[in-house]
Amino acid sequence: PLWPGRALGSGAASAPPRPPRKRGADHAGGRARAGAVPFPRRKCAAGLALTRRQHGGAGAGDLSRVLLPEPGAGRPELEFRTGRAFGLRHVLFRGALRPAAPSTELVSGGSDNQVIHWEIENNQLLKAVCLHGHEGPVNAVHAVYQRRASDAAALHILIVSAASDSTVRVWSKKGSEVTCLQTLNFGDGVTLALCLSFLPDTDVPVLVCGDDDCKIHLFVQQNDQFQKVLFLRGHEDWIRGVEWATFGKDLFLASCSQDCLIRIWKLYIKSTSLDSQDDDSIRLRENTFIIENENGVQQQPMRLLSASMDKTMILWAPDEESGVWLEQVRVGEVGGNTLGFYDCQFSEDGSMIIAHAFHGALHLWKQSAANSKEWTPEIVISGHFDGVQDLMWDPEGEFIITVGTDQTTRLFAPWKRKGQSQVTWHEIARPQIHGYDLKCLAMINRFQFVSGADEKVLRVFSAPRNFVENFCAITNQSLNHVLCNHDGDLPEGATVPALGLSNKAVFQGDIATQPSEEEQLLTNTGFEYHQVAFQPSILTEPPTEDHLLQNTLWPEVQKLYGHGYEIFCVACNNAKTLLASACKAAKKEHAAIILWNTASWKQVQNLVFHSLTVTQMAFSPNDKFLLAVSRDRTWSLWKRQDTISPELDPIFTLFAFTNKITAVHSRIIWSCDWSPDSKYFFTGSRDKKVVVWGECDSSDDSIEHSIGPCSSVLDVGGAVTAVSICPVLNLSLRYIVAVGLERGKICIYTWKKTDQVPEVNDWTRCVETSQSQSHTLAIKKLCWKNCKGKTEQEEGEGAEWLHFASCGEDHTVKIHKVNRSALQWT
């Protein structure tokens, strides 16, 4: 069977766009702004609250899936698709109400104006209920369990949601029935944060809303309707976070704002009668303290956690004698190109804290059992925080390299713990952190690749020694065996010079001459830009985010100039001697394919045929042909000519092509691939068609050859964005074809040529991904793993298991495994 994919990508969410300011301005004085605030809680499980940064508009750069990670494992324990085409702005996770109840519930709000309630049991999504009504993106959600006076025997879920349409909606859910109880209108204001709790020693819900009017609004529910009882003044800028917490019989409220302050309010009841209109019937006492950090508040004993754009999280606790809240622990990042934390959260028992950062990264710290004031970084999932555009397996099938429009190249590999059978995949290196959106890559050899971005230059990178050492330690391989084919003059690592884009190699001598910290302090005038230096280290487990940013870059060894516009696709032949590249083009002269010699990095030849952008290229497995597909809805096939001397560069000539008359596809051709025997090639297009072409005879010496479809036209029911052919056949000697669609689904077919004219029943649909296994946005690349790799044997898997990887615009990378004989999902 084909098992659910391991999600390697999708970094944590970033912040939503800041609405136009209506009141006040950023205060002077250089203080950071305060944001959302988590309290450790005793009563109900606190969830990981995520907000998604929009890139340019609604629906762009979205996070439309939910990953519930297993702490310390670095992999999702549960993953499901939200079913939305827009960004996920806020999620709230609730544990089971009673220990006997195995189900958990989750509430999410998105930029599609919807609130969705999810119910999960045994890592399976049972059902989802959509709550419609908002007319703008949802900013915040919260929920509590409630027993209503009219139906005390039944348990209801009280849900509140705030949206940019200036309303807060109150919902009640019982079973699968959802009712909107009330809509609170805030006029021209916008509620940015809200939280529900209960008045002390009662079942009366109390709602707090933090608004852009710098006020905190309190509501108490009476007869299923929330009545505004008072508002709290004090903050001088937008309220970014509010959180209730119960300590004994006391109810505390924490609020944080962009005025750099966190305020602690204590609520107590002066009068038990809620019918009284006296504002003094509910009183709050206030404790205010200034912070130097910006975002986020949560209790285990009585503690408060805040996260900030100054790249720190601070754990606060009240002094036993004075009651003043003081800083207890500060954790965070130093250096790098990060821009701080957006939110934070406690674990259920308060022993772990987590934050998510501007660039999508999650940061996890765990409290030491021996020293309660010592917190150490822990392993957590990581991945791209924007669309993943391309991926490649290394020739041995032991790691994956990916590139994305988050301007990073990332390397994922399995972590094999010594003496343990558990294997999990993690990001172990970030070879390239660029200034342009990355579009494509090609592996030259196991530790060398070429990447193309939204620039005219191709860049070549080679692995440094420190990466190879860490790769062997994490994947439990022999260093001497891995380095046997590499020269001994490998650089130790790489660093980026000030104001530079190129990764500069760092050798052993460069590390030895770096000044000590004391020398830097003596010579520092306070005005210099200090280059972040590479620091070699040997790891036995996957690195943390700060290590990935600073110490896992690969040196750039070559730049390739020749294209007139942004690079769009690149491919390398199987002998690793020839590289083909193409750029965006609107004219024939710019749509030329450039061939490069990978030994000298000199241009070998320009192949001119297409009139618009070449979208993908593929060399045949025997390296006799080069196939190119284009936005002009045609393909071209180039054949390598034999040379007199093997030292001479090969020459390619046009062997076959389609034009407007012979073309089968009516829309842009996005993808192409070859059968493992080099006889046939496959094309996939936006017109929902997959077509097989051939046969391709490498012994035919005619200048131009007519090659037509040799299969029936396969209509997959959606725009095709990726096609990949398995390097081995199934047990019936049929080709295994993976097809990726624009809507995120992956379908697997088998194909075999028949003797019928026209071809009939040559395609067999085997299986497709379920909703939770599919990507949520367009699939950009599918890639089967080389079956000659050693990973399957080391993991105890036989030759019947096949692996392929997928990546998409939903920021994720997935690895799927297929049972060669069954070809069914499980």
Automatic annotation (TrEMBL):
GO terms for biological process: tRNA wobble uridine modification. This is Elongator complex protein 2. Residues 1-15 have a biased composition (Low complexity). The keyword tRNA processing applies. It holds the Pfam family WD40. It comes from Galemys pyrenaicus. Keywords: Cytoplasm, Nucleus, Repeat, tRNA processing, WD repeat. GO terms for cellular component: cytoplasm; elongator holoenzyme complex; nucleus.
